[in-house]
Amino acid sequence: MRVGWLGLGAMGLPMARRVLQAGHELFITAHRNRSPLEELARAGATVCDNVADVVARAEVVCSILPADAEMEAVWGDTKVRQAFAPGAVLVEMTSGSPSVMKRIAAALAQQGVAVLDAPVSGGTAGAAGGTLTVMAGGDPAVLARVRPVLDCVAAQIHHVGGIGSGKAVKAINQMLAGIHMLAAAEALSLAQRCGMDLAVLQRVIAASSGQSWIFDHKAQDILKRAAKPGFRLRLMKKDLQIAVDEGRGLPLPLATLALQWYELAARDAGDLDFSAVGRLVLGD
Ligand code: NDP
Which of the ends of the chain has fewer CB neighbours closer than 10 A, N or C? Predict the structure, then answer.
């Protein structure tokens, strides 16, 4: 397929690489950083003059941008929206707000462009290995059309409802992960006070009702203050903000509190892995 790709960052570059390696034609353009562009061009991607040119040449356009502001900047541009070829599909993979996604899809629908709302989970390792989970919102027939592209990057593709529900599932997942990270740090603080052996504790918790993916996989990182490159604190802060904003008016005390902790932790160290929020509980 002819695939346009916008967003060649920590996630987008390894995903686009896989799409190209699978034999699809890839159309890209420069934003600020030219190095991913040059790498993909050497591997056979076509470099276009601007976003409208990328969009015009693609059957499927994938975008994985930082956040709502960038989604609105790109898809709010009438010239870009009008550039879509007849029958083309936008696969919007940014972790953004459901409400912004719905607005963008409505504007594109006026142009006759179908949209799949398709954020991902699985991090940069999942992007490189093609093992991401896709949370797809939109028409199942549109999902079926773009599956050959999604199959290059995902091990699991879940259809979760209409437009906006992909972003909603992602926000709910991030809310849980953010809260679980803080809960794990507090549990580890108590474990240290009680002189527990971590290996023993993890084995038992993994088979008990307090089990979580975060406690199973991130406890070592929290304790070692590893904070090696992973899912950045500032991205978790952004995702919790989405959850809290979408839930305005609901009692979400844990998400609201967690957001404050991530804001604090991200203030000086936003590029550290989100396990670094544990330092606020355990000390540096
Ligand atoms: P990065 O900041 O690494 O990459 C963002 C990319 O978008 C860059 O290539 C940037 O280009 C480009 N970009 C920014 N603004 C524009 C614009 N206006 N027009 C075109 N391109 C633009 O982010 P990630 O790849 O880490 O994350 C992308 C999304 O995926 C986020 O919503 C994130 O929450 C989500 N996500 C991230 C995960 C992770 O582990 N990192 C895991 C799962 C989801 P340039 O560099 O030139 O400015």
Answer: C
The CATH number assigned to the domain holding 79 equals: 3.40.50.720
pLDDT at 229: 79
Q: At what angle do helices 35-42 and 12-21 cross, to 10 degrees?
A: 10
Q: Is the C-beta atom of 94 inside 6 A of ligand 1? A: yes
pLDDT tens digits along 34-71: 999 999 999 999 999 999 999 999 999 999 999 999 99
What separation in Å is there between the alpha carbon of 245 and the centre of ligand 1? Answer: 21
15 shares its domain with 116: yes
Q: How far is the CA of 235 from the centre of ligand 1 (A)?
A: 10
Looking from the CA of 126 toward its CB, the CA atoms found within 13 Å total 15
Indicate the pairing of strand 89-92 with strand 154-161: unpaired
Boundaries of domain holding 265: 168-282
- The helix/strand/coil state of 235 is helix
Residue 215: the pLDDT is 97
Distance of alpha carbon 257 from alpha carbon 69, whole angstroms: 24
Question: 197: buried, middle or exposed (CB in 10 Å: 19+, 13-18, 0-12)?
Answer: exposed
CA–CA separation, 238 and 29 (whole Å): 26
ipTM above threshold 0.95: yes
